[in-house]
Design goal:
This protein is α/β, with parallel strands linked by helices. It is built from 24 helices and 29 strands. It folds into 4 domains: 103 residues, Beta-Lactamase, CATH 3.30.450.20; 160 residues, Reverse transcriptase/Diguanylate cyclase domain (Alpha-Beta Plaits, 2-Layer Sandwich), CATH 3.30.70.270; 248 residues, EAL domain (TIM Barrel, Alpha-Beta Barrel), CATH 3.20.20; 119 residues, Response regulator (Rossmann fold, 3-Layer(aba) Sandwich), CATH 3.40.50.2300. The strands form 6 sheets. An 8-stranded mixed barrel has the order 13-14-16-17-18-19-20-21, surrounded by 5 helices. Strands 2-1-5-4-3 form a 5-stranded antiparallel sheet. Strands 7-8-6-11-12 form a 5-stranded mixed sheet, sandwiched between helices.
Length: 719
């Protein structure tokens, strides 16, 4: 080949090489330009996407299917506890998930659930998670939306705790206890094991709460809870059901274990609790029921342990009773009695019997006590002891009390219409009636609807009624007294006598409990107590009425001690209204001549407009060591009452300008301690009864009177 041809070929090859190099260079330039353009486009899209994520309030992650985080907005960075996004990029978010209750990578999953995630500092956050599939820049990805629900979860747990635990003691409450007991029963059933439930009621808690206040009661409850929590209740639970009631459920393998556990509980409850620097021992009544012998579900076991507890309490407290089927039968009978009693109140099966109350100095029947009876077609005639305690427990006592008051007022009006005058009737008041002023309204409306003098209705109030809230009780009692109704303190001496409240109690009568009267002839202590109560009544301007008098000896001693009134079987049992009419028509139902008198000095005021009568009385009374004032008109007598304190006031029924009953009613207001005596020629029982119930006249001198009668009366008054 010639050199010329070789040169041509060489130049051609070089040109081709240059052309190829140029083409490659051009391709490289175009490729780089395309790459730069693509990168610019991709960065812009990512930035736009990230800008959207940054503005979202919720936490959002963009991750590969394998879990590596590609993008995270600031909310997600903060939620997961990282300092910046770069710390999170590339991490597998699945490694932060604590809960595995859901499969977070299920295809197309949109889960509405809460999980726990571990934050960068190791703490946990409750997170509500939603996961969805997506494609980002052509690659499959996952979008994870996170909501921090830690606060909601905390509040939910707090609310659940409050709903299932006692706020004061922190023990599980009834609801939680029944849930746990149900679980224990299921476990015991599966393993063929035994389980005991102990129902605990504190014996003296009400006394502590009432006498020392609710704060002291709370201290007791918390201390009891602490002691129960400290017990080795392996596989068991202690709970507070409410009030002073606690319950313990614990596995027991034998009767011996059950009895040992019961004794432990009894001993724990007998340990003193220090209140106001004083050790108080409460004790407890405990009822026990056993699975499976006494029930196969939680409610039944708890109910039967409760039944056994009431038997322990009825036995005197500080005792353990184990459930028996006989207890269930007794409860069923009680429930039937309760049902019948509810029916009886609404269907006129209740009746009133009346027990006479007799003046010891005159022998006259001056008032009666209304005592309720239940004439049941199923049980026959039932006395209060058979149903009143039940009525108090089930909330029927106020209904019975309302019925008794209406029935008593109806009978007062009926006797008046029959010409027997205004008879004073005493009715008992339940403690529940003094917790609000409903009774004031009821008394006022009952008196108004029957049109009877308020003095003819007497309310007997037990002395211990005012313990829980004495000021409220005294306020209500004061408003009742303002209506003109008579008041009596019942069962005096058997409760927690508080002389501070007694002196503020506007009662006219103080009833001596029959437990003291029964021991009068045998026990010097009972006689001393009765004498003290009578003297206390006189000092407080009250009449002392002894109830439960069954023998003449008891009546004689009461007369000697100065009691004003008596009632009891020695006079008469409680009678139906028709049978009582016979006694109401008698002038005297008791021969007082058989009873001895004790002499005491008197200052006496005598008012009579007849000078002859005044002279006769003066001659008679000069034989006695008395300081007597003789006046002939009511006006002068009222002036004398303003100057002197009298032990007795003797007044004629007929005075110029004013009758003796009206005058003595005024005298009662001015000098309530003075004994009021009416001179009258009338034998009209209506007049005599009006004098007793309106003016509280205690004695009568029947014209023409025997001088010996007046002397005997003066000697009687000295008692």
């Amino acid at each position: 080949m010639s050199e010329e041809l070789e040169g041509v070929l060489r130049r051609a090859i070089e040109r081709e090489k240059k052309a190829r190099q140029y083409a490659e260079s051009l391709v490289e330039e175009r490729t780089e330009a395309l790459r730069l353009a693509y990168e610019k486009l991709r960065t812009a899209e990512e930035q736009e996407f990230f800008d959207v994520l940054s503005r979202m309030p919720c936490a959002v992650l963009l991750a590969q299917n394998s879990g590596e985080v590609a993008l995270a907005n600031p909310a997600a960075v903060e939620l997961l506890g990282f300092a910046q996004e770069s710390d999170l990029i590339g991490r597998n978010w699945l490694s932060m998930v604590v809960d595995d209750a859901i499969d977070p990578m299920s295809e197309g999953l949109q889960e509405d659930a809460a999980i726990l995630m571990r934050r960068a500092n190791g703490e946990f956050s409750a997170v509500h998670i939603i996961i969805g599939s997506s494609a980002f820049l052509g690659s499959p990805a996952r979008i994870i939306i996170l909501h921090d629900v830690s606060e909601q979860r905390r509040l939910h747990q707090q609310l659940r705790y409050q709903a299932t635990h006692d706020g004061l003691t922190g023990l599980p409450n009834r609801q939680r206890f029944l849930e746990r007991l149900g679980q224990y029963i299921a476990s015991a059933r599966m393993h063929g094991a035994g389980l005991s439930v102990f129902f605990i009621d504190l014996d003296k808690f009400k006394f502590i709460n009432d006498s020392m206040g609710h704060a002291a009661g709370d201290v007791v409850l918390c201390e009891v809870a602490r002691r129960l929590q400290a017990l080795p209740l392996a596989g068991g639970v202690a709970a507070r059901l409410g009030g002073d009631e606690f319950v313990v459920a614990v596995p027991t393998r034998s009767v011996l274990e059950r009895r040992q556990m019961a004794q432990v509980l009894l001993d724990v409850m007998l340990q003193p609790i220090r209140l106001d620097r004083i050790d108080q021992v409460l004790g407890s009544s405990i009822g026990a029921a056993q699975y499976p012998e006494h029930g196969c579900d939680a409610e039944m076991l708890l109910k039967r342990a409760d039944i056994a507890m009431y038997h322990a309490k009825e036995s005197g407290g500080s005792a353990v009773c184990y459930f028996t089927e006989h207890m269930q039968e007794a409860l069923d009978s009680r429930l039937l009695l309760e049902s019948r009693l509810r029916y009886a109140i609404c269907n006129d099966e209740l009746v009133l019997h009346y027990q006479p109350q007799v003046d010891l100095s005159t022998g006259m029947l001056v008032s009666v006590e209304a005592l309720v009876r239940w004439q049941s077609p199923d049980y026959g005639l039932l006395f209060p002891g058979a149903f009143i305690a039940l009525a108090e427990e089930v909330g029927l006592i106020r209904d019975i009390g309302a019925w008794v008051m209406v029935a008593a007022c109806q009978q007062i009006l009926r006797w008046h219409q029959e010409g027997l005058g205004w008879v004073r009737v005493a009715v008992n008041v339940s403690p529940l009636d003094l917790v609000n002023d409903d009774i004031v309204i009821r008394v006022a409306s009952t008196l108004a609807s029957h049109g009877i003098p308020p003095e003819c209705l007497e309310l007997e109030i037990t002395e211990s009624l005012s313990i829980s809230d004495p000021e409220m009780a005294l306020d209500i009692i004061g408003r009742i007294k303002a209506l003109g109704v008579a008041l009596a303190i019942d069962d005096f001496g058997v409760g927690y006598s508080n002389l501070g409240y007694l002196k503020r109690f506007p009662a006219e009568r103080l009833k001596i409990d029959q437990s003291f009267v029964r021991g009068l002839s045998q026990s010097p202590h009972d006689k001393a107590i009765v004498a003290t109560i009578i003297q206390l009544a006189r000092s407080l301007s009250m009449q002392a009425l002894a109830e439960g008098v069954e023998t003449e000896e008891e009546a004689r001693i009461l007369f000697e001690l100065g009691a004003h009134l008596i009632q009891g079987y020695w006079i008469s049992k409680a009678l139906p209204s028709k049978e009582l009419v016979v006694m109401l028509r008698q002038m005297c139902v008791l021969d007082t001549k058989k009873l001895q008198a004790i002499v005491s000095p008197l200052r006496v005021l005598v008012i009579d407009d007849n000078p002859i009568i005044l002279d006769v009385i003066q001659v008679i009374l000069t034989t006695l060591p008395l300081n007597v004032h003789y006046l002939d008109c009511a006006e002068a007598a009222l002036e004398c009452l303003a100057q002197y304190q009298f032990s007795a006031i003797i007044c004629d029924y007929q005075l110029p300008g004013e009758d003796g009953i009206s005058f003595l009613a005024k005298a009662k207001t001015l000098q309530p301690t003075a004994v009021r005596i009416l001179i009258t020629a009338s034998t009209d029982l209506a007049v005599l009864r009006e004098a007793i119930n309106i003016a509280r006249v205690e004695h009568f001198l029947q014209k023409p009177f025997d001088p010996a009668q007046l002397i005997a009366l003066m000697n009687t008054l000295r008692a």
